[in-house]
Amino acid sequence: MDTADIKTTAKGKRALSQEIASRHTDPNFYGALNYLPNPDEILRKLGKSQEVYDAITTDAHVMGELRSVRAGLIKYETRLQAGGEDPADLRALELCEQYMKQRPAPGMQWIDAYWNMAKAAFRGFAPHEVVWAKQDGYLLPEKIIDRPQRRFVFGIENDLRLITRDHMMDGIELGPKKFLLTRHMPSFDNPYGVALFSACFWPYTFKHNGYKYFVKFCEKYGMPWALGKYPVGTPEKEQKQLLEGLQQMVEDAVGTAPEGSSVELIEAKHSGKPVQAILIEACNKEMSKALTSQTLASEIGDQGSRAASETHREREESVNDSDRIMICDTMNELFAWITELNIPNAKPPTHEFYEESEVSMDEVEKLDKARHFIDIPAAYAHDRLQIPMPQEGEEVLPRTGSAPAPSEPGQQEFNRCPGCGQAHDFNQHGATNKLTDQAVEGADELIASLIEPIRKLLENSHTLEDFRDGLIDLYPDINETQLGEYTSLALQVGALDGMEEAK
User: Fold this and answer.
1) Percentages of the chain per state (helix, strand, coil), in multiples of 5
2) In the chain, what are the domain boundaries?
3) What is the DSSP string of 320-389?
4) Among 262, 409, 416, 501, whose CB has the most other CB atoms within 10 angstroms?
5) Predicted TM-score (pTM) of this structure
């Protein structure tokens, strides 16, 4: 496209459906290239490939952070969600679930495949080759194999290309549904993605150079100096003998010295941490921030507290959430391929990670308190407490307490009659007067047993909240069961009296 065509296209309606800011019109792009060099600053300036990142993974601190990230991935369960409710969508879900029960490749587990996809965050991108095969009439992946990044480049259209012996620079074009690609923060200028190991390179380099001088420091100042003294006029031969004895003393902790000479041990004194140790700690923190976005969870030292460490751990987990989303996107693409090849008109299922929530004591206390004034379905309580419902005839642990009798479906708590303890429909013909009498009679018996302040409080309270607050003011030590009983009684009497007056 020449300059005139570009100007016409940019101004005309054709600009809406065409790319005009592509690399073909970029003055900074060398048009003879069929591929894009990796723009990673570290790899480009050093003239090295991914092997520099392999060296970084051997660092003990980096390995510890990688294991932490992997552990955060393993603790999550996985499941598939149907793409829709149509029979075809459910068939696609069932097919993908059956496929997930087999291994992604011989000798590999799905957690290994997930981890290889997660490596895209550290290296920029992670390619996986898919080998298809017929299985029970369906075309399914037989193998999903992670391939090294050095075998791939990206074309000028940001398409993945495979480097071969015949095409060692620009690679060859790849067909659809062959390579899964997981990328971390890719862009138009950088389809290779952002590699976190790139941010670790200089801290890694300085740290290991610091180790070299730190070892020398320990060798030089970590043990006392042996200082030999000889009288003035001692022959040079005897001086050399004394020096050799001191050298032997450093190695074997024993030595000899001529008569008339002396040996003194001088210990090196140093205050605070050696500067080399400070350098190593600083480099470790920089790498931790790059890999997990925090430092205190791995090295709290004397700088943090438990609260700060927990905050940093939460930050790390939020970063791990984004990595799981990246893996799910790759798996969703795989399920889309499986669905398209086998059930063309169905919506593919989606992949997700989830974590089984732990039951807290707050949840137990909430259910225990709530059952004093509302009816809680047993199935709901078992679900919240993650305790399965007992099967018929199954042995169960004996209860240490009793739960209130459940209400009939559709009845509110204030519909329960204090006279007989049963729930009734007050709209039934002829029932209102009888129930009102029973409720008032039960109320009178209870109110008669109360002291005068409560009786006055019930008469002077305009709302249920006034009565409740007044009870608490009168009896600060009143328990929740008594408060619920008195409040429920006041609500019943008020409702029945109002119905009676209306009738």
Assistant:
1) 50, 10, 40
2) 1-32, 412-502
3) HHHHHHHHHHHHHHHHHHHHHHHSTTSPPPEEEEE-PPPPPHHHHHHHHHHTTTS---HHHHHHHHT-PP
4) 416
5) 0.60
